[in-house]
């Protein structure tokens, strides 16, 4: 059986440098750059990052799994709707879905 753990969140930013400066100053977070559209933060209690990708207009929570295809099947079988199919990103594979109450979440499987 696949495992599922909430351990990631992502925050959208229209001003990446300003957001990094704010979170660093206010909360002591540090950042690792992964290209112009994403900065991962550390020291926040969970893994996560800032993104300036247009499609990411709201903060979202990520659910880590060890079987991405099983997660898609589980989401659909439980009544969720996949809103963005599985795709590769620099850290592995992920997809987005909407649960019946309307919340959009992301499931990801890190690269091995």
If you had to describe this structure to a student in words, what would you say it looks like?
The chain has 112 residues and is of the alpha+beta class. The protein has a single domain (4-110), classed as 2,3-Dihydroxybiphenyl 1,2-Dioxygenase, domain 1 (Roll), CATH 3.10.180. 20% of the residues lie in helices and 46% in strands. It has 2 helices and 8 strands; from the N terminus they run E-H-E-E-E-E-H-E-E-E. The chain has an 8-stranded mixed sheet, covered by helices on one side. A hairpin with a 4-residue loop joins strand 2 (30-33) and strand 3. The radius of gyration is 14 Å and the shape is elongated.
Write out key terms for the chains shown.
2,3-Dihydroxybiphenyl 1,2-Dioxygenase, domain 1, 8 strands, alpha+beta, eight-stranded mixed sheet, 112 residues
Describe how the helices and strands are arranged.
Layout: E1 4-12, H1 16-27, E2 30-33, E3 38-42, E4 47-51, E5 60-65, H2 68-77, E6 81-89, E7 92-98, E8 104-110
Parallel strand pairs: 1-4, 5-8
Antiparallel strand pairs: 1-5, 2-3, 3-4, 6-7, 7-8
Chain oligomer state = single chain
Q: What gross morphology would you assign? A: elongated
In the CATH classification, which architecture applies? Roll
The helix tally amounts to: 2
Q: Helix proportion of residues, in percent?
A: 10-25%
Q: Supply the number of structural domains.
A: 1
Q: Briefly note the CATH topology name.
A: 2,3-Dihydroxybiphenyl 1,2-Dioxygenase, domain 1
Strand fraction: over 45%
Gap between N and C termini, in Å? 18 Å
Full CATH superfamily name: 2,3-Dihydroxybiphenyl 1,2-Dioxygenase, domain 1
Order of helices and strands: EHEEEEHEEE
Structural class: alpha+beta
The parts where pLDDT drops under 50 for at least 5 residues are none
Average pLDDT reading: 89
């Amino acid at each position: 059986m696949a495992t599922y753990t909430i351990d990631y969140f992502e925050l959208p930013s229209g001003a990446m440098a300003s957001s990094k400066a704010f979170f660093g100053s206010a909360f002591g977070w540090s950042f690792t750059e992964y290209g112009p559209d994403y900065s991962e933060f550390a020291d926040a209690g969970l893994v996560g990052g800032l993104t300036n990708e247009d499609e990411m207009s709201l903060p979202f929570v990520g659910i880590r799994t060890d079987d991405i295809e099983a997660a898609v099947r589980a989401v659909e079988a439980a009544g969720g709707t996949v809103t963005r199919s599985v795709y590769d990103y620099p850290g592995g594979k992920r997809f987005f879905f909407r649960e019946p109450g309307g919340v959009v979440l992301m499931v990801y499987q890190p690269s091995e």
